[in-house]
Amino acid sequence: MNHHTLARASRRLETARLLLEAPARAHAAAIYDSVNTSLPTLGFIAWAQAPWTLERAIRFCEGGLKMVDDGECLIFNAFRRDDRAFVGRIDLHTFDFEVPRAEIGYVGDARQTGAGLMREAVLAVVAFGFRLGLARIEAISEVDNHRALHFAEHALGFRCEGRLHHRERNARGDLCDQMMFATFPSG
Hints:
The chain is an alpha+beta fold. It is built from five helices and eight strands. It has helices spanning 3-8, 28-38, 54-69, 117-132, 146-155, and strands at 12-14, 18-21, 74-80, 86-96, 101-108, 136-142, 159-169, 175-183. The longest helix has 16 residues, at 54-69. The radius of gyration is 16 Å and the shape is globular.
């Protein structure tokens, strides 16, 4: 597994209820709407601390596609199959190809909460990462982000591995502790 593996990886995944696609300019309006609607629930997401413009959403989609094209990460925007409603964004990033391992990130649209759609999307990306050859996928969240911690452990089945002290700066710029969760291929 290497950058070429990522650059050549599928740009589209499907589940029973969802279509997951690499970022595209055509997704910008849905992401713009989702971020602005979901702002009250995005307090831990550094890039979502203020209302967005459509232009910012376009740059976000174009920048994400460039990272995918460059083999830097894998990004999928998830949409419901039935009505193409935006569900959320899932990415595999911070790869260590020697292990190989990566971190997973996910941000859901607040209007889609409770139907298990983000769980379905994230598990599809996890399974895809393992099919590409990953031996480990990590989910890392701030210790105060109880919703994300619960999601990683209880909805996704990731195993808690411990607390990382002063690992990063939070959305306010303060040093924060984070919890690390991980999952591994079955079998």
